[in-house]
């Protein structure tokens, strides 16, 4: 039956070819357009039988548009946009909103097959915008549904859902315009389509969230292991650093010189020299190891440089009689000074501990 119908259409078209030049071309294009929605295979055969060289510019644009539509309706993968681009150029200048919308729509379909995602998305939106200016709700529904499919294929489910909503609203407008009785059925089908897509979106997002959650858990576990390793390394490095600082302190010539004072009962200045650099190095070493200088200055900003030097010697357990001459003072005067440092400059007036004991505890 299908072959007989096709032969009948070809016979009628052959008879139409006997009409004046150009009239059979128009009849062929009109008949192909009429058959396109119901039988795109027959429409494609009719289009192939039309002589392209007999067409004017308008007919050629319509012919290219119908050829692209036939391939789209037959689910033929588009491999070139040459013909549809020519149709778009013509209808941009001479077509109405409906013609332009169709041209942009089929251009977007071709670009989608060719992998031109940005151009396809732009032209789908332009086709929808122009279709909304007309009352061709069937065309608007078709464009929105095809655009929804385009978004789904590219993983843009939110945009796909929006297109399904627009297609459903357009279908309601179409049914209302025709005042058809199947309104309730088509509405239900439209709602079902939207709900099914919505469920698909929710399922897809849920799967994505679960995948991300699993990934984050693995990342957190990995980071926790790395954190523990870094903590151990930091502890080890801190211990090594402290050990190294102690070695530097213990092996310092200045510390050795200070400790030799314990072995001397009398320390004449000529017999035991202690330079300004020695004082600076002693205070710096005790600051690096014990934080002595900063702690004392925090407790009492009134401490002088000489007060700090006295505390530094006491920290090493050197008695005032051993280093009084280095401070250019007598043992009694130095002892009174040590007492004033404890009771007047540092907050230890009521403490029973000596200044030496206090300094060593810092």
Architecture overview:
This protein has 362 residues and is an all-alpha fold. It has two domains: 208 residues, Tetratricopeptide repeat domain (Serine Threonine Protein Phosphatase 5, Tetratricopeptide repeat), CATH 1.25.40.10; 109 residues, no CATH class. The protein has 17 helices and no strands. About 3% of the residues have low confidence.
Topology (elements, then pairings):
Layout: H1 2-16, H2 23-36, H3 40-48, H4 57-73, H5 82-94, H6 97-113, H7 117-132, H8 137-153, H9 157-178, H10 183-250, H11 253-259, H12 276-290, H13 292-299, H14 305-315, H15 320-323, H16 331-345, H17 355-361
Concise structural overview:
The protein is mainly α and 362 residues long. It is 76% helix and 0% strand. Keywords: Membrane, Transmembrane, Transmembrane helix.
> Strand share of the residues?
under 5%
CATH architecture of the largest domain: Alpha Horseshoe
How many domains, as an integer?
2
| CATH homology-level superfamily of the largest domain | Tetratricopeptide repeat domain
Structural class of the helices, strands and pairings?
A: mainly alpha
CATH class of the largest domain: Mainly Alpha
Give me the count of strands. Answer: 0
Question: Over the alpha carbons, how many angstroms does the gyration radius reach?
Answer: 48 Å
The average pLDDT is 82
Percent range of helical residues: over 70%
How far apart, in Å, are the first and last alpha carbons? 108 Å
- How do the helices and strands follow one another from N- to C-terminus? HHHHHHHHHHHHHHHHH
């Amino acid at each position: 039956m299908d072959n007989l119908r096709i032969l009948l259409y070809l016979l009628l078209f052959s008879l139409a070819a006997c009409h004046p030049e150009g009239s059979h071309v128009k009849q062929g294009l009109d008949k192909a357009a009429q058959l396109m929605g119901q039988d795109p295979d027959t429409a494609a055969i009719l289009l192939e039988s039309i002589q392209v060289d007999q067409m004017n510019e308008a007919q050629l644009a319509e012919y290219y548009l119908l050829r692209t539509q036939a391939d789209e309706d037959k689910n033929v993968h588009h491999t070139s946009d040459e013909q549809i681009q020519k149709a778009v150029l013509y209808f941009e200048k001479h077509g109405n909103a409906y013609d332009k919308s169709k041209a942009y729509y089929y251009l977007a379909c071709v670009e989608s097959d060719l992998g031109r995602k940005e151009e396809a998305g732009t032209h789908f939106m332009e086709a929808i915008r122009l279709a909304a200016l007309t009352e061709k709700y069937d065309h608007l529904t078709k464009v929105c549904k095809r655009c929804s499919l385009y978004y789904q294929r590219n993983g843009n489910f939110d945009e796909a859902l929006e297109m399904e909503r627009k297609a459903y609203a357009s279908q309601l407008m179409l049914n209302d315009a025709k005042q058809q009785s199947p309104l309730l059925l088509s509405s239900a089908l439209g709602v079902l389509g939207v709900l099914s897509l919505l469920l698909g979106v929710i399922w897809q997002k849920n799967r994505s969230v679960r995948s991300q959650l699993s990934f984050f858990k693995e990342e957190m576990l990995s980071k926790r292991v790395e954190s523990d390793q870094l903590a151990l390394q930091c502890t080890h490095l801190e211990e090594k650093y402290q050990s190294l600082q102690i070695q530097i302190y213990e092996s310092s010539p200045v510390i050795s010189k200070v400790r030799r004072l314990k072995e001397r009962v009398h320390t004449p200045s000529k017999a035991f020299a202690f330079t300004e650099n020695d004082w600076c190095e002693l205070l710096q070493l005790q600051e690096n190891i014990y934080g002595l200088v900063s702690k004392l200055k925090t407790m009492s900003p009134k401490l002088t440089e000489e007060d700090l030097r006295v505390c530094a010697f006491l920290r090493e357990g050197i008695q005032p009689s051993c280093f009084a001459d280095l401070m250019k003072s007598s043992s009694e005067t130095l002892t009174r000074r040590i007492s004033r440092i404890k009771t007047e400059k540092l907050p230890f007036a009521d403490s029973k501990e000596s200044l030496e004991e206090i300094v060593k505890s810092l």
